[in-house]
Design brief:
This protein is mainly α. It has helices at 7-21, 38-58, 69-92, 101-128. It is elongated, with a radius of gyration of 16 Å.
Length: 129
């Protein structure tokens, strides 16, 4: 795996790590935080984007608007494992954060939806280029 080829997903994993390990007191208070379960939406979006980036970087049929099964499997597996690692890190090693089964479920759902919508997203983005 070349970091040059996978720089976007690598950078995004660092962003996820920072966003999910910073002390909750360092997160700016906004009215969005008052939306019930807003943090689940954030988890969903973080892992949706991660899976899209991973698929794009591994998908050898991207230019043809197709999706290889292997790229979808890799993206889903990496996203799910990384989501689990993040939640376990929060649960067992961070005192200012707490791991959550519901956060993990939001991570997984974001990755699954990304896999399901990838071909549509790829076609839309190809038309804009």
């Amino acid at each position: 795996m070349s970091l040059v080829k996978h720089w976007k997903s690598t950078a995004w994993t660092v962003i996820i790590l920072l966003a999910t390990t910073l002390p909750s007191s360092s997160i700016p208070k906004t009215s969005l935080l008052n939306i019930p379960h807003f943090d689940k939406i954030v988890h969903f979006v973080l892992f949706f984007v991660l899976a899209i980036l991973l698929i794009s970087e591994f998908n050898t049929l991207r230019k043809e608007g197709e999706l290889t099964r292997m790229s979808a499997v890799i993206a889903l597996a990496v996203s799910v494992v990384y989501g689990l690692i993040i939640e376990l890190l929060q649960l067992y090693f961070l005192t200012t954060r707490s791991g959550s089964l519901y956060d993990f479920a939001a991570n997984v759902m974001g990755a699954i939806v990304a896999v399901l919508l990838y071909k549509t997203i790829n076609r839309i983005s190809a038309k804009r280029l």
